[in-house]
Amino acid sequence: MAAFRFAPRHLRVAFCAALVVLIAALVAAPSLVAKPAHKHGKSHSGGLTITKSSFGTLEGAGVDRYTLANARGMSVSILTYGGIIQSLSVPDRRGHVDNVALGFGTIDGYTNAAYVKSNPYFGASIGRYGNRIAKGRFPLDGVTYSLDINNDPNSLHGGFKGFDKQMWVAQEVQRSGTVGLRLSRTSVAGEGCTLSMPSTPLCTTGYPGNLQVSVLFTLDNSSRLRFDYTATTDKATVVNLTNHSYWNLAGEGSGTIYDHQLQLNADNFTPVDSTLIPTGEIRSVAGTPFDFTRFHAIGERIRNNNQQLVYGRGYDHNFVLNPSRHPGLNLAAQLFDPSSGRLLTISTTEPGIQFYSGNFLDGTLYGTRGRQYRQGDGLALETQHFPDSPNHTNFPSTVLRPGQTYQTSTVYAFSTSGHKK
Questions:
Q1: CA 305, CA 295: separation in Å to the nearest integer?
Q2: Which of 2, 36, 162, 377 is the most buried (most CB within 10 A)?
């Protein structure tokens, strides 16, 4: 039987018809078009994105990393373990982008023996009570509650297993003009007293009440990272939530922050005793190394023979923010790095800010880029209620009762400046 062949004209007609069918199929079924396998993010208006990736596993549970990014080159990565800001990258005055937050590139960095021993709380969400509580004891409604002594002789940042060592539930949040991530968890009654890690003296109660807590992180195209903390309880308790990021605006692992210039909107601070517990006094900063009402280089006076600096081996003190003259967020601090031109401006609803100059970084930890973290290689600026407030009636109260909602907000705004402060 002779083979059937198309004539040239028939070939052209058949080819065109097949091409039309193929194009129609692709239009009708766009899902057939291959998409890049490496993209796991969601794009929002104005170049704002959120991307989810794996950051390893911990005790069989997966740790996720969510990265928020904007159209101006800023990005921040947040872990579901500890609510940790693992990295935060922003451009310098020349447009060069660098990570300015101390941290690690793997989950092992936050959990290995050297980190546990040093316990610097890099980037962590802190609770149930940020900062120190004297001797791990506080009274509330006629009852004395006892906590872990994890910073001898005091309790620090919620105890041995504070919020910084817990897994959080993540939810992506989309709002007009921002991209966000909400982390939530239930802090059960008794947290803060870790029976498997006994301290002296032993604790017996932990924090009272079951606390429903969330932290909402949002980023906008003005390079403002906002923290909104919310909590409710079923029994009277104390709450003081903050973030413990360490900053080096010259770049993570680049050396000390002693040439960074700092200004604090604080005419007063709360002096401490030799265990870094506030004495209860509210003291003027005037005429002391604690006067940052104008810009000063951090290293300018840090070695002065001032008893408060001796106690802290540098700055590790709560500053009393001057009251705002208008409702809403109050300017708390500005931090400037002359070498890069990066400027961090912090605003908050909180009454205080803890300035910690990285005094206890001892060279045993190596960061994201494999560089050693030594004393003064990063600093923390933690917005907060005052340390040990439950034991000082003259400090702003940190008591939360059923029917009330704990709500505080803080904004970290990043920009650049070409001028020396």
A1: 21
A2: 162
With vertex at residue 224, the alpha carbon angle to CA 131 and CA 87, rounded to the nearest 5 degrees, is: 65
Q: What is the pLDDT of residues 107-158, one digit of tens each?
A: 999 999 999 999 999 999 999 999 999 999 999 999 999 999 999 999 999 9
**Using CA atoms, how far apart are residues 383 and 346, in angstroms rounded to an integer?**
9
Does residue 271 have a cis bond before it (omega within 30 degrees)?
no
Asked if the peptide bond before residue 153 counts as cis, ω within 30 degrees of 0, the response is yes
Which among 53, 49, 105, 55 is positioned nearest to 72, based on CA atoms?
Answer: 49
Residue-by-residue DSSP string for 78-118: EESBTT-EEEEEEE-TTS-EEE-B---SSGGGGTSHHHHHH
Q: How many helices (H) and strands (E) does the chain have?
A: 3, 31
HSE of 287, CA atoms in CB hemisphere, 13 A: 2
Sign of CA dihedral 412, 67, 341, 291: positive
| Separation of CA 217 from chain center | 9
Mean pLDDT of the chain: 91
Q: Are 320 and 328 in contact (CB under 8 A)?
A: no
pLDDT tens digits along 83-103: 999 999 999 999 999 999 999
Residues with Cβ within 8 Å of residue 294, at least 6 apart in sequence: 263
> pLDDT tens digits for 349-407?
999 999 999 999 999 999 999 999 999 999 999 999 999 999 999 999 999 999 999 99
HSE (side-chain half, CA atoms, 13 Å) at 173: 20
Taking the alpha carbons at both ends of the chain, their separation in whole angstroms is 94
Q: Please state, in angstroms and rounded to a whole number, the distance separating the CA atoms of residues 118 and 113.
A: 9
* Residues identified as active-site: 244, 382
Could you tell me which of 391, 411, 329 has the C-alpha nearest to residue 155? 391
81: which 2 tokens?
């373990």
DSSP designation for 107:
G
CB neighbour burial string for 350-387, b if at least 16 within 10 angstroms, e if fewer: bbbbbbbbbbebeeebebbeeeebebbbbbbbbbbbbb
One-letter amino acid at 372 equals Q
Which of 148, 146, 104 is closest to 122 using CA atoms? 104
Q: How many residues does the chain have?
A: 421
